[in-house]
Amino acid sequence: MNQISAITPDRHAAGLRVAARLKDIVAANKLMTDPLMTYAWSGDASSYRLIPAVVAIIDTEDQVRAVMQAARAEGLPLTFRAAGTSLSGQAVTDGVLAVLGDGWRKMKILDGGEQIVLGPAIIVANANAALKPFNRKIGPDPASQATCKIGGVVNNNSSGMCCGVAQNTYHTMARLRIILTDGTLLDSGDNDSREAFRAKRTDLLDQLHALHHQVMNDAELVALIQKKYSIKNTVGYSLNALIDFHDPLDILIHLIVGSEGTLGFVSEVTYNTVPEHPFKSTALVPFPDPHSCARAISTLANGGVHVTTGVTAAEYIERRALETVIHLPAMQPLVPFLDENSPAVLIDVTAPDAETLALEVAKAETILAGEGATTIDFSTDEARSHALWDIRKGFFASAGAARPKGTSMLTEDVAAPIDRLADFVIDLRQLLDEHDYEDAVIFGHALAGNLHFQMGDNFSLPGSAAKFDRFSKALSDLVSIQYGGSLKAEHGTGRAIAPFVEAEWGPTAYALMHQIKSLFDPEGLLNPGVLLNHDPDIHIKNLKLMPLADPLVDLCIECGFCEPACPSHQMTLSPRQRIAVTRERARLRDSGEDPELLARLDEDFQYPGLDTCAACNLCSLRCPVGIETGTMIMGQRAERRGGLAKSVAHFAAGHTGMIETAMRGGVALADLGQSILGTAAMETVTDATRKATGRRLPRISPQLDAGPGAPKAPTQISREDPRATGFPVPIARQDRKKIVYFPACPTRMFGAAKTDLDLLAAPQAMLALLDRAWI
Amino acid sequence: MPDHLNGRCCGQPFVSKGFPQEGERVGNQLVKALSNLSGEDALPVLTDASTCAKHLADLPGTATIVDSAQFLADTLLPRLTITNPLPALAVHHNCSAQRLKEQPATEAVARACATAIAVLSSVTCCGYAGDKGLFTPELNKHATRFAKNDIPPDCRIGISTVSTCASGLSEHAGIPFVALASILEYVSRP
């Protein structure tokens, strides 16, 4: 049975010493070594879990250098982490985990949107929202773009549906700012920085230059590298840097792209943005068989030349995937055209104006019809386009929701030369079926030869890791060797396929990658074991267990999509972390293996887990399977309520009127206090009182005024100005529509903030409006 | 309006704090009272906090619950004349408003009330969470730490469809947040 190894006493002690070394440069609440918080930060979106010895939330370049020094001094490895949405296990460590905090949110648009400067903690979708008014976006478009951050995008050379092989970070980066393990800074767009770096790190640049010549003198290797990057590829280091550039500085910054945090720290990037054309037409086109569909895609792919006008996305969807969504309304027009073999392709055509769009759609229609498409239905209707794309995006969620509870979700991400797409899909299908993964469905960014599929597996069962191992080896053989493809097209090497890098690249290129690692990081400080790993079984070690904990959350795959929506993320815990810790507590409770640790986790969960969850459930809106972590937390609160609390609540529930009056009274008293003492003094007094009462006394915010209370039910009809009487006029007249108005308790209890305007409180304003609109 | 409003509550605060039975009891009393008022005519029930609207709508009951944003946008706005629009208005969609998908309604009213609106994009849930702003104010402070970046210089006031969220935002966003109805009433005064 697979087991997550607990932190050894030695590691824990080293973690404590790292924290001690950092205590003057990182705030105490941003340094974590306790069992709860280290467990909370133990997973990314992959199937792997490693518990860090220490977690540090860092905000500055000085802190980056300090964390490097502290980790080195205590002999612990160091992993930097942005959003933690990695799918191959590259953002987890059993050493020092340095998480990007608020200090990395720089965003600056240059030249009317032609370029954008971004800090590594900016979420991709936020950068694109800022660029939208300019009809631009950044090139990399990972499916996790509402969550994932720039630091991860650079370090994984991430990409998605429209990005192709031409618009990733490697090709659209204009400037990079990095810190190497010796603390040296390089800002590639700043002349002084370049010259200073050249002077200080001549050794490194000379050796990179030598590597460049070594590769250029090996025609076979050059050809291999060119072929590997003609399709999407995130296996190993970006060796194309060694053939695309001559200046070792350029080679260096391009090697950093896709290096998965193993070569240096990325502190800022400037992108050349790409057009985001406002005119778009979408169609979901069925074909009679995989071969005709693949031929059409191959022609649409324009010989691999990336376009920004014309067909910008073509998603292949195999028949078995279509079957899982066949009930959806948007699918209905297609159903008559599907037979048992029919795949479909989802196509976006985009253009800067309506005329060009019509031309491009006509071109695409000709190609599709020529290859035997059974029906073609392009439309510029935005709602329909969203519905069609929701079908495609829904495969991730439906695979997640359909899998048995307690299983991990494995996400595969392979690519092959596009001229062999149809055979590739058919062979993949056969491989999945042979290995007992019949439920997996295949879909993907076919223009770039990229296919995805997901499987569920329960790694707590005996034999499951061995089964996954057999499948992984067979997949490596099929993709890397038979098809000359990429075992990871977009998701990065991580721990998941580190044992298969050599099989894909061959011994010469693989040795080159080890040389690169030892040039940048000879001591193996940065994210060791990720991307390159000597352990042939690392892909089946440290696999996440998904113990059943609460039916509300059992389907969670810990992807982290919830985190940007959570008000307590990076203050205490995020929804993903609340679930991870809840699962671990459930596992410890069921196994009985460490009652002391269980008691500690249960106790420590109170404040970060329960008290600081706003129960807003916004996590559920981001979750691919709609999990309401807030509801889980409310349930845990209920479980913890003792007899006394319950009887108090019982009393309160029977006396809500008294509470309301008292609350309004309390707020009103505070209001009076503010007038007498002044806001600052009042805050000090209330904060001190709160502390004295163990946070049981509510703190009165300086913005909080006494509520208006319930408007008195009007007794006589009057058209007086409500502002004069304080309470408004009745509206229930015989000739008017009737409506029941229930001013909610917070509206009644909490008054409005003080403003310069002569505003009415909410209930009074509502009644005045009803009257004015003569309802 | 229901008589004896004092003490009437949908029960959501009890559920949220881990007292589901008490929450149900209080909520059912209110639903009963509202259903009685709504009566045979099945009058719609208007309430003015998105959180309560969401919770009430989820409770079993006969009456149709309408939240104020939707009602202001659909029913009142077309019958009002905006006489005194504001130059700019900040808008926060609280958690229940997002879950009720009432952002378009709120923004439609806000756009009618002001020349320009600025939707807070860095604040998801303000962390005030009914009364957490009173008991764990650090959560509210953390959740709203970037709010000031979302507010343009000429924007002096903002709206939220829940009064507790308005309190939480007012303290950290640098401008006061008030009810949407209060602003609509102000800008449509004859």
TrEMBL record, chain A:
Region (Disordered): 688-728
Its EC number(s): 1.1.2.4
Stored SUPFAM superfamilies: alpha-helical ferredoxin, FAD-binding/transporter-associated domain-like, FAD-linked oxidases, C-terminal domain
Domain 4Fe-4S ferredoxin-type: 545-576
InterPro entries given in the database record: 4Fe4S_Fe-S-bd, 4Fe4S_Fe_S_CS, FAD-bd_oxidored_4_C, FAD-bd_PCMH, FAD-bd_PCMH-like_sf, FAD-bd_PCMH_sub1, FAD-bd_PCMH_sub2, FAD-linked_Oxase-like_C
All residue ranges annotated as the FAD-binding PCMH-type domain in the record: 48-276
Key words of the record: FAD, Flavoprotein, Iron, Iron-sulfur, Metal-binding, Oxidoreductase, Transit peptide
Top class in the EC scheme: oxidoreductase
Pfam family, one: FAD_binding_4
Needed cofactors: FAD
Membership in a protein family: Belongs to the FAD-binding oxidoreductase/transferase type 4 family.
Protein name per UniProt: D-lactate dehydrogenase (cytochrome)
Species assigned in the record: Devosia algicola
Native organism taxonomy: Bacteria, Pseudomonadati, Pseudomonadota, Alphaproteobacteria, Hyphomicrobiales
TrEMBL record, chain B:
InterPro entries recorded: Cys_rich_dom
Domain Cysteine-rich: 6-56, 90-147
Pfam families: CCG (PF02754)
Protein name: (Fe-S)-binding protein
Upper classification of the organism: Bacteria, Pseudomonadati, Pseudomonadota, Alphaproteobacteria, Hyphomicrobiales
